[in-house]
Write a structure and sequence with these properties.
Length: 484
């Protein structure tokens, strides 16, 4: 754990990196790309990673698909899960504070600021670059209340090497082997690395685009042939040459009847291959990052040709990817963030964890009917299972609740859509005092540990380090029976 809060990347390293951010374009060829990919395979990440950054910057279709994938994952809700024990509740409070107050920036662009959503976005970017690594800078806000957090600094992939089977940080620009990434100091994530395939696709797309542009420059304006009986070099011949130049610039000229003008058809017969190759590459981008691209690749023939079909299947593919990404990102944060932080604060293994919530199934009506059938036929259903399925929070103390036989009201209708009086936005999450004992803590603000509701008598607790300091909602260890 880096307890100093000071970055290991000094200013000289940053300035050297910025100077060396040259562009490998436009002379990218398949031979050069193959060389870079082979180097990447043996752990030399320098050239390929920098080339990929430029590809993403300059290919709008590639960037759009990558960013959409990252945005979808970053938009998922998250929560802190406790195992229900008093120690687990204390761990949950510490992690809740940690993630709520965490900041995210970029080592080479420190004006970039974000929160946990940005952290998830950056981690998901590993699906493009294969690796995504943050430096963790600890920040202690209140040691007595065990309130600590981190600044996460996204570090470029080409700051690292993987020649020994694990990532090593290249402390100096010309280092060959880097320093191992210590747990609690670095947050590395390993994803699919689709840019390896997109590199080849990019070359397939880049070359036809160049050819297409060259074709347009050469043959975008129709060629003409001028026929005349004038002798070459005569005044009439020279006048015709001047007229031809005027035709090329202004598109109009005046000649006598002895001059004949014929258009020359140099266009390729049939459909040009450029558009088809570019569209095939764009569809391949979408399939890699977004799943089946039915909106562009599934076309009906005949009278419906040109109209996209299969959008519902495409949406299903997106949900599958989101659920997979949630399961992929959660253990990365559990092992590389939750574990070292809880060890640092409590000197024990964590009993509460960060969880990225997968998207809820949209077929809620079918599940409601299934639940009703089970209850009516004596099949027991756990309350926690039902709440987890529909993202319904527990009612807050003193809040009116629905009871069997009560008349339907608009609030019940809202609950069927994932809304409740405690959650008017309908996002399926709310925070209450009972969420920790349940135990769940949402990322929405306002959660208090049992018995930690602020009151006028903020009594110190001798069991806590620095117990002579006023209590906060995070450092009060008692349960409901000790409520202030």
């Amino acid at each position: 754990m880096n307890l100093t809060g000071k970055s290991q990347i000094d200013q000289a390293r940053i300035e050297w990196a910025l100077r060396l951010k040259f562009s490998p374009m436009p002379d990218i060829t398949m031979k050069r790309m193959t060389t870079q990919l082979n180097s990447f395979r043996i752990g030399d990440l320098w050239l390929a990673a920098r080339t990929w950054e430029v590809m993403i910057e300059r290919d709008s279709e590639l960037a759009a698909n990558i960013f959409k994938r990252c945005e979808d994952v970053a938009a998922l809700d998250w929560e802190i899960m406790s195992d229900g024990s008093p120690e687990g509740d204390r761990h949950a409070c510490a992690l809740k504070y940690f993630y709520d107050h965490a900041s995210v920036t970029n080592a080479l662009d420190q004006d970039e600021i974000g929160d946990v959503s940005k952290l998830i976005w950056n981690i998901a970017f590993a699906h493009a670059m294969k690796y995504s690594t943050h430096e963790m800078l600890l920040r202690v806000d209140n040691a007595a209340a065990q309130e600590v957090t981190c600044e996460f600094r996204l570090t470029p992939v080409w700051f690292f090497e993987c020649r020994r089977g694990y990532l090593g940080w290249l402390q100096h620009v010309f280092d060959v082997y880097g320093q191992p990434l210590e747990l609690g100091e670095w947050l590395p994530a390993v994803g699919y690395g689709h840019m390896r395939a997109c590199s080849v696709l990019y070359v397939f797309k880049h070359n036809p685009l160049q050819d297409w542009l060259l074709y347009s420059e050469r043959y975008g304006f129709p060629h003409v042939q001028l026929l005349t009986d004038a002798t070459k070099g005569s005044q009439e011949w020279n006048d015709l040459m001047n007229a031809y130049e005027k035709l090329g610039n202004d598109g109009a000229l005046i000649t006598n009847k002895t001059v004949e003008i014929r258009p020359i058809d140099v266009a390729t017969k049939g459909e040009l291959p450029f558009r088809a190759m570019v569209e095939d590459v764009n569809r391949a981008y979408a399939k890699l990052f977004r799943g089946s691209d039915l909106a562009t690749s599934s076309r009906a023939k005949g009278q419906n040709e040109g109209h996209a079909v299969g959008a519902s299947v495409q949406k299903g593919e997106k949900d599958i990817l989101l659920a997979s990404d949630a399961r992929w990102a959660t253990p990365i944060l559990n092992y590389r963030v939750d574990r070292p932080i809880i060890r640092y604060l409590f000197n024990s293994e964590p009993r509460a964890w960060f969880k990225l919530l997968p998207p809820a199934d949209d077929d809620a009506q079918s599940d409601l009917l299934t639940a009703q059938f089970c209850v009516q036929n004596g099949v027991p259903l756990a309350v926690s299972t039902v709440r987890e399925r529909f993202n319904w929070p527990e009612p807050q103390p003193g809040e009116p609740v629905l009871t069997p036989g009560s008349a339907p009201v608009s609030g019940a209708a809202k609950s069927a859509l994932g809304q409740s009086p405690a959650n008017p936005n309908g996002n399926g999450h709310a925070t209450s005092e009972s969420q920790i004992s349940n135990p769940q803590i949402s990322n929405r603000a306002g959660a208090y540990a049992p018995g930690a509701t602020p009151g006028p008598d903020q009594r110190p607790d001798p069991r806590m380090p620095g117990g002579n300091k006023p209590l906060t909602r995070w450092n009060y260890p008692g349960g409901q029976e000790n409520a202030l």
